[in-house]
Amino acid sequence: MLQALSKQAPDPSPATAIEWEKVAYLTLLSRELDHLEETELIPGKQMLYQFSARGHDMAQILLGLQLTGRHDAASGYYRSRPLLLALGVDPAEALGSALGRAGGYSNGRDIGVVFNYPNPHGASALPMSGGVGAQYTPSAGWAQALTYYADQLGRLDYASDIAVVLGGDGSVASNGFWSALTIATTQQLPMLFYIEDNGYGISVPSTTQTPGGNIAANLAGWQGLTLYDGDGTSPPEAAHLIQTAVQHVRERRAPALLRLTVPRLQGHSFQDTQGYKDADTLQKEWQRDPLPKLKAHLVPHVLSESAWQALADRALADVKRARTQAEARPLAEPESVLQHRFHDGDLQKMGGQYPQGYVAPPTTQHAQTGGQRINMVTAIRKTLDHELSINDRVVLLGEDIGPKGGVHAVTLGLQQKHGASRVFDTSLSEEGIIGRSVGMALAGLVPVPEIQFRKYAEPATEQLNDCGTIRWRTHNRFAAPIVVRIPGGFFKCGDPSHSQTNEVAFIHQPGWKVAVPSNAADAVGLLRSALRGNDPVIFFEHRAMLDHSWARRPYPGDDYALPFGQAHRCREGEDITIVTWGAMVPRCEEAAEGYGADILDLRTLMPWDRDAVLASVRKTGRCLIVHEDLGTAGFGAEIAAVVADEAFMALDAPVSRLTMPDVPSPHTPALLDWVVPSVPRIRKKIAELLGF
Prior knowledge:
It is a single chain. This protein has 692 residues and is α/β, with parallel strands linked by helices. It has 3 domains: 2-330, Rossmann fold, CATH 3.40.50.970; 373-554, 3-Layer(aba) Sandwich (Rossmann fold); 570-690, Rossmann fold. Helices cover 37% and strands 14% of the residues. The strands form 6 sheets. The chain has a 7-stranded parallel sheet with strand order 1-8-9-5-4-2-3, sandwiched between helices. A 5-stranded mixed sheet has the order 18-20-19-22-23, with helices on both faces. The chain has a 4-stranded mixed sheet with strand order 14-16-15-21.
C-alpha cells in the first residue's frame, strides 16, 4: 500500500495529538546548534566535522517523539542529531562529543556526530557507524530480538516495541539496506525504514541510486511491506505519515517504509560548498525549509507570536549554556585510548547478556577423560546443544543450519530439538547474518552466526569491523558479544573460495577474540568460554580437523571451559620450540618424532600466549613457527617479531617460519600437498634449525 498524502492532510486525532510546542522548541534548538557550529566552532577550529541537519530536523523530531516504547530503538547516521534531541539527549552531551571532549558518546574516540544513546528507561539510539548503510541490518536484528523476547520468552513488555532505522536516498543503494529489507519482510519484523530523501548522496543525485529517484515507488510490488510517501517539510503531512507508520509497525508487528522528501539546506558536510547545485536548485530548496512552514502552521493557531519568540529565546539560551558546559569538559587522557578494547572489568551499559543480569554457571579446566572419543563436529554440536538447553538467550543462525544441519553437519538435529525460533536459516547475505547478529546482541541475546566458509565472510567485513569496535568507540556504553563460527582451511582438496584460512585478518580488527582449536576437547572448552563470555569471538573450525582421527577426544564435560590466551604444550623438549595451531598441530607432532621439540598449540590467536612462547624459546634457543596461512604478513610474522624483540639474546638460530607460499589454496591434491606445510617439509626445517 503506497500512501501519498496531500499537504492538506489533517492533524492526528486529539487522542494522539502532537506536542507541537515541543516540536517547535526542539527544531529551534537543533537550528541553533547547527548555527553555532557553522559560524563559530568550525571556523574557530574547535570542531573537525560538522553535518548540518537543516531541512531534516523537523521530521526527525516528529519521529523521535513517537518512540515512546520502553524497548524502542533507533539506528541513525551522521545527520540524525535532531532525533537524539527528541529522545532526550542533553545538548551539552551532543556538543561535548562534537568538540572531542572527555565523556560523551565516545570519550573523543569517534566523530562527534556518530551518536549512541543507551537508555534503560526508554528509547535508545543504537551505536551509529560512519559507514553508509551499516545501520540497517543491526536494526533488523534488534527488531528480531523484540519478537523473540515477546513470543519465545513471554516478555509482554516487548510486545509493542519497535526498531527504527534512518537512512537517506543514497544509502538505499547499499547492500545493508537490501539485506535488512529482506530480513524484515520475510520475517515480518516490527521495523520502520525511515528514508529521508534530500535528492543527493553528497553530490550524486538520487536518480543514480534508484530508478526514478523514489525508493518507495520502486518497492510498490515488494511483498510484506507497507509503504508511505510524502512531504517531510509539511508539518501536518509529516506528522500524520510518521504517526501512521509508527502505529502500523507497533500494532501490526510488521515492517513499513516511510519516505519523506526533505531539502538538505547546507552541504553534505561543512566543507561541502555544493558547487554541483545551480542557483535555482538552491533557491528552491530554501523555499522548502520546514522551519517557516512549522511557524506558519502553529502561529497564531497554536502559539502566539510572543510564545514562538519565547521558544526561540529559550533554545538560544540553552545552546549557550550547553556550549559553556561542553567547553568546561576536559580532553580525554591520551592513555585512556587503550581502555575497553575488550571487556576489562567495567560492565557496558547495554549489549550482551551480562547487563541483563546473566550469571555464568561454574566451569572447570579439568576435562573428563572417560568415554568414547568423538570428532570435532560432534563436540561442537554437543556444546551448542547444552548451551541452548541452559540459556534461553542463545540463538543460532546462518545459511543451511536448520533442517539440513549445516553444510558440515555441525548443527544437525538442533533445530528439531530447540525449534526454528532458536536455530534458524537466513537469507544468503553474510552482511545480513552478521549485522542481524549485532542487533540481537545489542538487545541482550547471544547470537551464534555461522559463515559457511572463511572466504564467505568478506561481504560482512564492515559489520565484523563495526562489531569489534563497538565497545571501544562507544567508550564502553555498548558491546555486541557475538560468537561467529567459521569453517575454513583445506580438506581432502582445496580451492580459492572454500579453503582460505587468513585468520590474521580478524586479529587485525580490534575487539575480536580469535579461537583456532585443533581438537575436539579444545573446541568444547573454547566455544563454551566464548558463549559465556562478554566479547565478540571468531571461532575458527578447521575443515580438515572436523572429522580427523587425531582430533578426536572424549567429551570433556558440560562444565569444561578453557581461558583464551593459554597455549597447550603438546610435547616437552629442550632443543627447539615449535609454535603452531589448527591443522598443523598433528603434522608438527609427527614431524618432531625423535627430536627434543617443545611443541606449543596456541589454541587462540587473540589473545595469544606470548609468555609461554617466550619462556619456551629462552629454554630451547630455537623457534620454528608453522602455519597454513600465507607467509607474507601471516600471524607467524607477529610471533617472529615478538620473539626477535624480546628473546633475541636467547636465540642460537634465526627465528624461522614455514607457511604456505603467497598463493590461494589450489584445488588438485598434488598442488595442495605441495603448498601446505607437510610432515616431511616440517621435519626438514627442524633438522636445518638444529644444525645451524
